[in-house]
Amino acid sequence: MKELALKYGCNPNQKPSRIFVENGELPVTVLNGKPGYINFLDALNGWQLVKELKEATGLPAATSFKHVSPAGAAVGLPLSDTLKKIYWVDDLGDLSPLACAYARARGADRMSSFGDFISLSDVCDVSTANIIKREVSDGVIAPGFEPEALEILKEKKKGNYNIIQIDPDYKPEPIERKQVFGVTFEQGRNELKINSNLLNNIVSKNKNITEQAKIDLIISLITLKYTQSNSVCFAKDGQAIGIGAGQQSRIHCTRLAGSKADNWFLRQSPKVIGLQFADSIGRADRDNAIDLYIGDDYMDVLADGKWQNIFKTKPEVFTKEEKTEWLSGLKDVALGSDAFFPFGDNIERAFRSGVKYVAQPGGSIRDNQVIETCDMYDMVMCFTGIRLFHH
């Protein structure tokens, strides 16, 4: 099949709409549902991300996409009991590596992942399908589906869940094109391979970088390769924990990603894990309540007349001092940036969210100031020499 007609483009008024290839056949097969324009944008960007993560790490990979940027990305490392609880998968028994990857990808920023499009590097198994089954999601793309997993997924959204199979051997043409306002843009595809060799140029005084830190930096850089720029990605223990995407100012990227990383860690605190939710509250409403509880608007869920609808017992306020103390335990975080840091303030903000390892292109006229800020906090900084803008 060379083309597939779509219901409409980005918006209902944008018709006609289709995806097509000029040569050969489309590399995708729709197994269920009717994916739309944005669904395919998310699916094809996400597929490239997880394919590269798998190639770079040798581990199954998953990503959770929303509006053409990842909300989370991860590889299939085992989950601790704490992570199983905050990702709402502690009742599912043993999870496959691929299921662990998706639980991590979805769990990085569950608020942003609501209604996501999922990309999986490996054949979707039953373990992964059982997680997807109960999450609010628009669809999934994978190189294949176990028969039982496919039947589980087909039951979602009253039988209309979008399921796409992609040819894992498909290789696009080396030149890519797109149109804006009737003008065609053309460029060579970004085929740059991201691996540990990019981390060899360590410019900080501290040059001690662990193998786990290398994996986390690779995850952050590959994630950035498919994130709308400007972008910054915090990663730890095999997954992105905070992504700042599409900001015009790099410090705003760093603040946004840092605040998401903080929220990820705050959700692991005993105060949050110990919240007693009303039996009628679903996962999405729990996520919303937790986000408010750990933020500045906590009275939106703790005020009299409100908490009774959410919790079995009224929680104590999670004070600023308690949150600061808990966040002091967030350490050894990796940080990638898709372009150079122009000022040391990005490093200052990153340090407050536990960043120990940094990978960035370098090339700013203030590189020395940025390096000095890293040295002040005994951080490790690599200059990759490569920029990762994506639009």
What does this structure look like?
The chain is an alpha/beta fold. It has 3 domains: 3-171, AICAR transformylase, duplication domain (Cytidine Deaminase, domain 2), CATH 3.40.140; 192-266 and 327-383, 3-Layer(aba) Sandwich (Cytidine Deaminase, domain 2); 276-316. The chain has 14 helices and 15 strands. It has helices at 37-57, 81-86, 97-107, 110-113, 126-133, 147-154, 211-225, 250-266, 270-273, 283-293, 299-302, 320-327, 345-351, 367-376, and strands at 3-6, 17-20, 28-32, 61-66, 69-75, 116-120, 137-142, 162-166, 175-180, 183-188, 231-236, 239-245, 333-337, 355-360, 380-383. Strands 3-8-7-6-4-5 form a 6-stranded mixed β-sheet. The longest helix has 21 residues, at 37-57. The chain is globular, with a radius of gyration of 21 Å. The model has no long low-confidence stretch (mean pLDDT 96).
